[in-house]
Fold this protein.
Amino acid sequence: MPTVKRNSFAPHEPYAYGQWVAFKLSYTGEGSLYIRNASLPWGKWYDYPDKDREVAAPNGQAVAPGSIVYVAACGQENSPSGTEGTFEIWSSTSKVAHCKHGTFGSSQLLVPYKCTRINP
């Protein structure tokens, strides 16, 4: 069941590091799900929870049954701008979710089945 953690402002972090989003993806079906079409015009992908470990876009990353995968983005350190982007979750043949995130609490996870959103 996908969950979303979002923090639109954390004053103890350097500038745009305080603007971040982390999608915790887990799956209990058969086969795997895959991250596709990840795009990040603003900010960077990071290895959750370490914002200092920048990673490549998660395109092609698999979510196997019973596993947990984090897709996380934040603003660049010491930058005045936050993060903004999208990614999709696919089965082997069809799109099952579209995820959109932006600054100031505009994160969305659009799925055709039940999901839980967590705001710290």
